[in-house]
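Question (not urgent): is this output format expected?
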Amino acid sequence: MEAFVRTEILGAVAYIHFGTPKSNSMPGFLLEQLADQIVQAGLDRSVKILLLSSHGDRAFCAGASFDELIALGNLVEAQGFFGGFAKVLTAMKDCGKMVIVRVQGKVTGGGVGIACAADYCFATQDAAMALTEINLGIGPFVIGPFVERKIGKSDFMAMALDASFRSAEWAKARGIYQFVGKDIDEMDKELEKFVLKLSSQNKDSLSLLKKIAWEGTENFAHILPDRILMSASLVLDPSVKQKIGEMKNRLGKTKE
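Got this back:
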């Protein structure tokens, strides 16, 4: 399977679906495509809702592509890569449309940012999440403002420091997930009913609710460039590159 992002507009809903062969981890070009398609769907006057989902029945998103992190050769490249995550999350925030995210399995790193940037999130009980960046010698700097907005600074710092997986019920209790199903079938049935109901609602009402939901985040535009630089500077350190390579090899052996 090759990495992809595709959008299908049916009625008032833009279905945006992405996937990569390695647990839906995100290379830079895919981040750019995903951000662009979110922006374009937001500009479509017929669209009221964006539904963001990923490929397969296991991991929702494993965050940054290890291959790409290892390949980053200079600060400009590294800033461009981490800026891709900022573009995706900012597009979700600023698109003017309600963004629903479907989480069918484990979520790490940047995938947690996507779940937290949702306006409403459906998940399965297998959708545990973790911020594992510290294990690589970096940190969840770019996604931090979006995660902290949902769960507060204390829980964000705990996730960032211990890198442990939190259960889907933990995420639901903190407002990241609004619905947790026992399996994909149960989740999708509830998701379908919710999308059908929401897509029939008044467009202007939804737009105003979106605006209210993100009040107080105007400073994100000023915060994110510094956060991008933090990640970009750290990832170029040889010791960090080594840790990323070791983690990549470990995960590769686990899947053999």
